[in-house]
Amino acid sequence: MAELPFSGNVGVARDRPGEFFSGRRFSRWLDRRIPPSPQITLTQKNVFIFPTKTGFAFGGLIVLLILGAINYQASLVYGVAFLLGSLFLVTILYTFRNLSGLNLEFVGARPGFVGEDLEISVRVSRPEGRAREGIQLGWPEGIMQSAELSEQATDTVRLYVVAESRGYHNPGRLLVETFYPLGLLRAWTWVDLDVSALVYPRPIFGDFPQSVSGDRDEGQLIDPFGSDDFTDIREYQPGDPIRHIIWRSFARSDELMVKRYSSYVEPRLWLSLDRVEGQLEEKISRLTGLALKATRLDREFGVELGSAKFSPSRGEAHLEQVLKELALYGHR
Amino acid sequence: MATADSVLMAEPLPADGKAATGVAYQIPRNSLALLMVAQVAVVLPYLLQLSPWIVAVGLFCGLWRANVYLGRWDYPKRWVKAVLVIFCIGGVAISGVGAFSLEATASLLIAAFALKLIETKSRRDAYVVIFLGYFAIATQFLFDQTILVAAYQVVAFIVVTAAMVGMNQLHTRVRPAASLKLASVLVLQAIPFTLIMFVLFPRMAPLWTVPLPGSSMTGLSDTVKPGDIANLTQSDELAFRVEFDGRVPPPSQLYWRGLVYADFEDGGWRAAERRPARYFPDPGSSDIGYEVLLEPTMQTWLFALENSTSADAGVYRTLDDRLASRDPVLSVFRYRAVKHARPKEPLPLSATAEARNIAIDDTRNPRIRALGEALRAEHGTATAMTKALLTTIREQPYRYTLSPPQYTDRDSLDSFWFDGQAGFCEHYASAFVYIMRAAGVPARLVGGYLGGEVNSISGHLMVRQYDAHAWAEVYVPEFGWMRVDPTAAVAPERVEQGLSAALSSEDLASLSLLSSARMGSWDLAADILRWADSLEHRWNLWVVGYDANYQSRLLGDLLGEITAARVAMAILGGGALSLSLVACVLFLRRRPVQRHPVERAFRSFSERLASYGYERRPEESPSAFVRRVAAEVGLSDQVAPLVAELDTLLYNPGVAWGARELKALKGQLRRLQFRLAFGATR
């Protein structure tokens, strides 16, 4: 486990005075107490509970009422204060029970690109019997989502978390919390569902490598692999490269003629690291962009990445394979 | 997971219809609706205590918020809110209640509650409103702790709690009824520990002085002028209830002493004695124990029979033989007292006390002063002079009336005694005291209540404001202070049977409400009133009057010696017990739902089949499952009767069937299962 992102800014800023423990030592302790597992059932071992700020204010209200009851010697004001206090105690059981027994399971993750939201699905299910309400889950840097468990026993919640680097990403411990029924207490847990979400490299869109973008009719002539095929000669037209002008014939006939070459038209693209510019990550990003562009234009392309080689093909499945290879390049 | 187009488009996906961020910040509509109901519920009872305009402001704000809720109106503009705030503060300021009185505080609380609701948008605001709501519920009890109000406030409490529940039921489909139900359950489950805390939590003396309700309470005051007590008879408000250890003594002995007016000033009397007594009567065999539940008076004086003592903390005996409380009585106050026999050896009267009790104003009432001096010359002793005066009252045409002529001149006692000859108890008593003083006999005016009405259901005595009375006490060297009631001379019925018996019919007609006159007649309404009164009495006895003194008596009985450790243990033990009861309800698995017997049989059948590899699909009915499985192993032609039987027993309520049919079905299922098991192993 890498460092846990506990200190991150929590998406739904609600009161959580229980959050006094954070940091490395706590995360090590947490790893021992709630070990990572793709599926976990919440019990008293892994659920924490603590009053919220509202809960502390509620306590203040009770103290105020007791002071009033003492000073006015009013029995029923004592009664209200004790009823509130008792309500608070009963609520502890309710809040805890709302999380206790829940089963959390990592279902899967939809791959995403670096810098975008990854969609991670977590299945939350409760035992048959009583409904659960107001259960929220999310990663600290994401947005809290609520699970609907009042009428159904199982809900699959889609969570979104920003992907920061390519490869398999584990967003860390998932926060599951509830403030039900009165918002005076917060029961929560940090579970590590062993999430691994595939993150594709951030695409950089550019032109296809020029060598392969020949067009027979336009006769645009470049030097692909040093093997030009001379085709024919025709009259110069504005726009023709000057170095293709046959100066000797101009000297002879005053006519501007140009040689026409045609590149070896290669309809299938070959993408590899040495055909794009930049540092390694930039190259990978560029290749990603090209693969996406090629697929969008429905062009065949092949990829050479170190030892892995994908013969030219087209279509979504091919693209997915390529993107996965790009995501994991150098990460294994 | 990745579908093709999402990879290609690579755009953020909609969050599956779930509101991602909004939910946590906004107040659910369900909760908001409950909050508005709660506001009305909490503000309404204040109509009885506060000026109507503040309640009107509260309801106006509620109306506005309701229209915002319904999408008709906009939130009030800032200037509207400013006007409302200024209106409320100004209103409280000019309404005449003291700046730091309880009424002013409560008015501002209600105003804050109403004004906060009108601008409530965020969850934080809502919690502020909810907490103010609880506070307002508690504050109401400073004015009124009757059982009816308490019952009402429990409902209000549940509604406020429901609003808080609604805040945390994030689901948009939740209806207010569901929140109310859960809130009721929560409150119900909270009650056991509430009761434990109520009994065990140590009651303390006030920590500091608090603003008192400023409105004038009906009742006696420490000054009395002729006519004051007559005014009290217009009220049938309860003054106090008394529970005697034994039988209730006859009415003529129930002189409830509250105030002793020793100083004559400006034509009226004033009670100023506050020093504690130096003499305490000895306990004896004829002692009468009684417990008083005094309604709030906002004063320190208590009401007790003569020669009473009290062992309660915070209650002391005064120099002039009264009981008084150390702190003002702000809510129903319970104290236990014992009436002792008269001391055999009278206490000598100190010189200062004698001087104080014969002081008269030499510039007033010359005729009465002359009468006093003549009386002294003629009779000599205090006893003889008293007898002579009472005889005068009895024989001369004195009248006992609620509406005597106004004696407003400087010599008002003269005009009453010699000219008007008509008056109420305070006229007779104060004239009597004055004459005795003029004759050189120490005398004083005593104010309190006389008699009361016994509730035939619970046997307690009920003393109302119209039982207010004034009488005299004279100091006789041989006996000490002796009670003399001149009213008994003019209207003996007042002493024996109560006020209504002593009044003329015109006087009775002038009384707006005289419940003992009505309660005298035996009918259903009177019975209900008696029943309600005894209920209220019990409520006061056990709940409202539960104070430090009563607590120490009760806990002494329950725990033996009262130590902090024992009380703490009792609280912890009781808390653990009551919470584990709730935990049992919450956590113990419910008994499985009783299923249809056919369904049960089929369930075990399909579980067995699942172990052979024949899974029932969720959408399959029992008969469809049987048909499919049979078809798979080529038994289709043999299961038709079983399928028909299954459908009939499960779904046709019109067909009667019993144990025999069930047994037959089970047999068919077992046979099929056996063949499938055989087929599966094959």
Helical coverage of chain B, percent range: 40-55%
The biggest sheet of chain B, with number of strands, parallel, antiparallel or mixed sense and barrel status, is: 6 strands, antiparallel
Largest interface, per-chain counts? A-B, 73 and 77 residues
Indicate the mean pLDDT of chain B: 83
The arrangement of helices and strands of chain A along the chain is: HEEHHEEEEEEEEEEEHEEHEEH
Morphology of chain A = elongated
- Give me the oligomer status: heterodimer
Shape of chain B: elongated
Terminal residue distance of chain A: 16 Å
Distance between the termini of chain B: 40 Å
In spatial order, strands of the major sheet of chain A run 2-11-10-6-7
Portion of residues within helices of chain A: 25-40%
SS content category of chain B:
alpha+beta
Class from secondary-structure proportions of chain A: alpha+beta
Tell me the number of strands of chain B. Answer: 17
Uncertain segments of chain A of ≥5 residues (pLDDT<50)?
1-15, 212-227
Rg on CA atoms of chain B, Å: 39 Å
Which band does the percent of strand residues of chain B land in? 5-15%
Question: Low-confidence parts of chain B lasting 5 or more residues at pLDDT below 50?
Answer: 1-24, 513-519
Describe, in plain words, how this protein is organized in 3D:
With 332 residues, chain A is of the alpha+beta class. In chain A, 28% of the residues lie in helices and 27% in strands. A five-stranded antiparallel sheet of chain A has the order 2-11-10-6-7. A four-stranded antiparallel sheet of chain A has the order 1-3-5-8, with no helix packed on it. In chain A, a hairpin with a 6-residue loop joins strand 6 (135-138) and strand 7 (145-147). The longest helix of chain A is centred in the N-terminal third of the chain and has 25 residues, at 75-99. Chain A is elongated and about 125 Å long. The model of chain A is unreliable at 1-15 and 212-227 (pLDDT under 50). In chain B, helix 6 (102-118) packs antiparallel against helix 7. Chain B is elongated, with a radius of gyration of 39 Å. The model of chain B is unreliable at 1-24 and 513-519 (pLDDT under 50). Chains A and B meet through helix 2, helix 3, strand 3, strand 4 and strand 5 of A and helix 1, helix 7, helix 8, helix 9 and helix 23 of B.
